[in-house]
Design brief:
Helix content of chain A: 40-55%
CATH architecture of the largest domain in chain A: 3-Layer(aba) Sandwich
CATH class of the largest domain in chain A: Alpha Beta
Number of helices of chain B: 6
Distance between the termini of chain B: 29 Å
Strand order of the largest sheet of chain B: 1-2-3-4
CATH class of chain B: Alpha Beta
Strand content of chain B: 5-15%
Mean pLDDT of chain B: 87
Structural class of chain A: alpha/beta
Mean pLDDT of chain A: 95
Radius of gyration of chain B: 15 Å
CATH topology of the largest domain in chain A: Aspartate Aminotransferase, domain 2
Oligomer: heterodimer
Largest sheet of chain B: 4 strands, antiparallel
Radius of gyration of chain A: 22 Å
Chain lengths: 416, 147
């Protein structure tokens, strides 16, 4: 039964037609066709997204929200259309709760510098997990140090899953914030954020979810999860670099002090007093990355047109296939064996260093990521210097995975 | 060892050795072989002060001076880096401080390994070369003030 279902899905998902839309997939590296398995770092872009950037600069480039001339109106309209698209994409209650930032990292820092500075006091506690990306560790470390607050860390098990009973134990009335990654970029672990949000709310804590990886692979629903803050970037979602989103509950965003001061985020400025703009502009100082924000909508539309579920099915099929093939390599150990996983596979191979594997794979045109993946504490937990990570996207194929496995066999032969 | 060759002579030797290889595969196999053969560093030297930190792999570097020449010993946890270390040591170890400071190390580009000294590789190799030159400079200053 499921074999038929698989066939139907595969037939309705034409990976070759999709690949044709990505010009970079035609290039060669070291004399071989590029095999791009570093999608968790950033995704490749379809022609429509590239065209959207050129189209903007060629035809209607102007500063937004400020001018009354035609170009300014066209640019503003296109920019604001993205806000509406993002609102739908993550099921935000209103469009005013969608704040454009330069990316996930800035979104998290925005919360730390505004909500954090305003609400975290001495003796308060902030909970993060042992699998966080540095961007969801460092801002909280800095804040806790400044405020004399405590940073608590939820431990993970050997499979790279959060120890939920540990989390429950850490929660207390002292907890003001839980900041948690939805999908780990190092292990692919999917965390049960809905349950965690519910638990955190019972002690009156606010929850920020790092959606950098999850926004690509999973369905995102702010209202359904009751999420307080959600951060993600365009560039992992087949969109351009330089733009991302902070979603926040309206009452939270309204109560937060301003982040960066400047143009756009003000109502009136005088040397006696300055008043600040309404949401979301209150948090959007200066001229944004207009082109990238406009092309961001194109990327989301591209994803929606194919269908997130179809993409997910394809990626999960690749993940299962890759996992099965990799397990057959002698000495290979998969890092991150959570029951709920998506998008990537991280591994180490006995008697080899990840960097050596990465270099030899690059010699065969295969792009993987090696190292600690900006998650040094997690690597320390597993007692390893780093891993080799292959992360998948909608344009990857089984044949590419076969090449990866062959490349690994060859690499191990030379190295060991 | 017989007469110490100049840096230039050694670099030319290495470039010639590498010219025998046609493919990337062969070149890397040779470098990996060099890496495997690199004399391991005594454990006592593997401490923080000798660590040259890279983002992805670690390099330990030890420098010593004898009769006006500087000698290096190094190791890494990544084998390709070890191979490149062995080439760098072959070129720079046993030379004078001035020669080390002024070495341009063009052979690296000539054997197609420039990316390994690039920032993005973050493998400690670039930092190691800088550190080797720093040691040379330090010895030079130390010796010029003790006259």
């Amino acid at each position: 039964m499921s074999m038929i279902k698989d066939a139907v899905i595969r037939n309705s998902f034409d990976v070759h037609a999709i690949r044709e839309q990505f010009p970079i997939l035609n290039r060669e590296v070291k004399g071989r066709p590029l095999i791009y398995f570093d999608n968790a770092a950033t995704s490749q872009k379809p022609q429509v997204v590239i065209d959207a950037l050129t189209d903007y600069y060629s035809n209607y480039n102007a500063n937004i929200h400020r001018g009354i001339h035609t170009l300014a109106e066209e640019a503003t309209a296109a920019f604001e259309k993205t806000r509406d698209t993002v609102k739908e994409f993550i099921n935000s209650e209103t469009r005013e709760q969608i704040v454009f930032t330069s990316g996930t990292t800035e979104s998290i820092n925005l919360v730390a510098y505004t909500w954090g500075r305003q609400n975290i006091k001495e003796g308060d506690e902030v909970i993060i997990s042992a699998m966080e990306h540095h961007s969801n560790i460092v801002p909280w470390q800095v804040l806790c140090e400044q405020k004399n607050a405590k940073l608590k860390v939820i431990a993970v098990n050997d499979d790279g899953e959060l120890l939920m009973d540990e989390f429950e134990k850490l929660l207390s009335t002292k907890t003001k914030l839980v900041s948690i990654v939805h999908v780990s970029n190092a292990t692919g672990t999917v965390n049960p954020v809905k349950e965690m949000i519910r638990a955190a709310h019972t002690v009156g804590a606010v929850v920020l979810v790092d959606g950098a990886q999850s926004s690509v692979h999973l369905d995102i629903d702010m209202q359904q999860t009751d999420c307080d803050f959600f951060a993600f970037s365009a560039h992992k979602l087949y969109g351009p670099t330089g733009v991302g989103v902070l979603y926040g509950k309206k009452n939270l965003l309204e109560s937060m002090p301003v982040f960066q001061g400047g143009g756009e985020m003000i109502k009136e400025v005088s040397f006696d007093k300055t008043t600040f703009n309404d949401l979301p502009y209150k948090f959007e100082a200066g001229t944004p990355n207009i082109a990238a924000t406009i092309a961001f909508k194109t990327a989301i539309d591209f994803v929606n047109k194919i269908g997130k579920e179809k993409i997910r099915e394809h990626e999960n099929e690749l993940l299962n296939y890759a996992t099965g093939q990799l397990k057959q390599i002698s000495g290979l150990k998969i890092i991150g064996r959570a029951k709920e996983k998506t998008g990537l596979v991280s591994f180490v191979i006995d008697k080899t260093h990840p960097q050596d594997i990465g270099i030899l794979l690059d010699n065969r045109g295969i792009a993987v990521r090696t190292g600690h993946h900006c998650a040094q504490p997690l690597m320390q937990r597993f007692g390893i210097p780093g891993t080799v990570r292959a992360s998948f996207a909608l344009y990857n194929t089984r044949e590419e995975i076969d090449e990866l496995v062959m490349g690994l066999h060859k690499a191990v032969k030379i190295l060991v | 060892m017989d007469d110490q060759k100049t840096i230039k002579e050694i670099e030319e030797e290495i470039v010639e050795e590498f010219s025998l290889f046609d493919s990337w595969d062969d070149r890397y196999e040779y470098i990996i072989d060099l890496g495997k053969k690199l004399q391991p560093l005594d454990e006592i030297y593997k401490k923080e002060e000798n660590k040259v930190k890279g983002c992805q792999s670690t390099v330990w570097l030890v420098a010593d001076e004898k009769d006006g020449k500087i000698f290096f010993k190094a190791e890494s946890d990544a084998v390709i880096v070890k191979g490149l270390i062995s080439l760098l040591i072959r070129v720079l170890s046993g030379q004078t401080a001035d020669e080390i400071i002024n070495a341009k190390l063009e052979f690296i580009q000539q054997i197609g390994m420039t990316t390994h000294l690039a920032q993005t590789r973050s493998n400690g190799l670039l930092a190691m070369v800088k550190q080797m030159k720093n040691y040379a400079l330090a010895y030079k200053i130390k010796n010029s003030t003790t006259i």
